[in-house]
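Exercise 7 asks you to align residues with tokens for two separate proteins.
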Amino acid sequence: MLYLMSIELYYRLSRVNTFRLYNGSTYGEYIIKSTNLPNNLRYSILNARHPEECLIILRDNQIEFTHDYPESINADDNITLTIIDKDVCLVE
């Protein structure tokens, strides 16, 4: 599941210097920079007139996303680090 910051958070952060430079000057550009979507969806999102329309495009194409970061993390995808002693670690 993708994490996308909410539209409101995007616009709040866009007031910070250089935020738009790295994250896009529109919410659609932010989505494109933050994800790896097929070209047809990228095109549709970049041509959306409103940020809400970008999210509708994702939903209509069965792209699961959330604005809640902890919800986007799947514990099964995480690695486990076990420290055996001061010089040896086990990564699972």
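Second protein for Exercise 7:
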Amino acid sequence: MGDSANSTFDDLQREFYHAWFRFHPEEAVSVGLEAYAGLLRAYDDDDIGALVSLNQKMHSALDEIDEEALDQDRYIDYQLMKSAVSVELHDLQELDWRYRNPLVYVPVHAIYQLLIHPVNDVQQAIKHRLQAIPEYLRGARVRLFMMPQTVVPVWLKSAVEQCEIGACFIRDLGRHRLISEVVSNPARLQPLLDDASHALDEFAHFLQRDILPSAAGNFSLGEDRFNRLLIENHFLDVDAMDVLAFGERLFVETEAELKAQAESMHKGADIDSLLEQLGKQHPEPERLLDTYRKRMRDACQWLRKHDLVTMPETESLHIQDTPGFMKPLIPFAAYEPPMPVDNKQRGLYYVTASEGEALLAEHNKYSIDLTSVHESFPGHHLQFVTANLHNGDNMTRSVHASASLYEGWALYCEDLMQEQGFLDKKEHRFIMLRDRLWRALRVIIDVRIHTRGLSLSEAAKLMVDKLGFDQQQADGELAWYTTVPTIPLCYATGYALIKAVREHQQQKDDFELKAFHDALLQQGSIALPLVIGRAFGEEAWNYARERVFSQSCT
């Protein structure tokens, strides 16, 4: 009976994704599927209706599966699929993005992803997507003009910014190194590039002229929906108030540690003055990328020597300047994982090379070390490559990643590499605590802007007052929070849960740190509670949950 249930579930997954990716062509390319590489995301009523129907049928089919007859790994995939279907159904029926979020229509990333994840006939895919952009954006204008009052102003502002920067990026793409690597004669694309960039300029003007005066949509989810996302996206069986209490407690504890660290480094020094001093210790702009490359290699070599985690045999990591259209979203650094099917497992490590002393201060040599640990080894790059090597053929786990694991792991790695001696300066600990304070404040703001009526101006003031952010940095950070509720809180929450489950496992006589890390990473990039339960047992998850949230729940 178990084999029958497993086989039925496998067939359901294959059939579902074969249809689902038609409505999500960028997600298809990101996992290495080429059939829809020439398409943009569908948004007309017939397509949305078909997607709703697909999810409804899948939900009913999953209900008919004998979940108790599934093996352990398929049961995890079953849970992931059922939750994902539920989330998408609700969002399509209750929070229709087509009338609220113009940013989703902006197709700049749809072009860029084909340059970094090229499919077999990439030239035709790029051509088809470029050809579609003018009509695609004309249709978007019609859709948004139907109900301009439902458009969320902060999302409109982000969309305008993306259009303006993206238009320049696409207009000049014919001369870009990346396009010459995948297109035989880039000059032939120039008329399409010009048309697409003009369409983006026109879309930005339309948003400012015709939509902005009426835009009054609300980004806030409300507490009920926020709680559902905690469960359905991250399998965290706590509510928003539990998470908020955890974030507030972590903020108080971390702030006290940070002040103590500052005092130990320089008697009487305050946090802001120390940050200013450390910020002066940065490489020259022309040496910035090379400095990041060196420290990435140093972290990799140190890990191989100290054997804290299994290092993938096949991987590569390319450090590059952040593309212009992505810089508003990536003020400092970020990571782009390889496709699961990539034989070379080549990740991209973006660094936003900044001009001006204030921005360069964030690239001080101690922050570079922390960032390289977070983004490369043993952080994001090692984790995503390991997930791909162990689960690359598992579409469900590739598509439904959770920041509770991948961001929790990266933040844990900062702590780990200090504990184990790679980050061995007192300045490293100071920067690490300051960055952890930032992640604790993310928890607080994430919950409060979506469930407690905290305004964006009030949230920005918290960032300016508590973290020393400038207004522009705070506004950019908060624009992201509004679009991805429950993601910002995952950094600190995931970190704390990993620390807690390690504490539980260390009580065993046969505990070995490398084996612990390997077990944690081999389940894929999925929700951390599912990983902990599968790798270490439900007792370990209950311990970690109690350890992190018990003081919050009382």
